[in-house]
Structure prediction request, 62 residues.
Amino acid sequence: MKFRTWAALTLIVVSLSGCVTGNYCDIARPVRPSVEDQMSEGTKRQILVENEKIAKLCGVKP
Prediction:
């Protein structure tokens, strides 16, 4: 195998392995839009869905 191919594969494997430790609830926070935000109904629904997911999975109050 050529050196370039080997180096590229090594870089890909290292990138994919990452350094993630912990879980979703370690970093999840409820979405709290500011007063200045102008949101569509779709955006409001997406925020509600995300906040409900966080509440269900992590016990965080939205």
In short: The chain is about 60% helix and 0% strand. Helices lie at 3-17, 24-27, 41-58. Residues 23-62 form one domain.
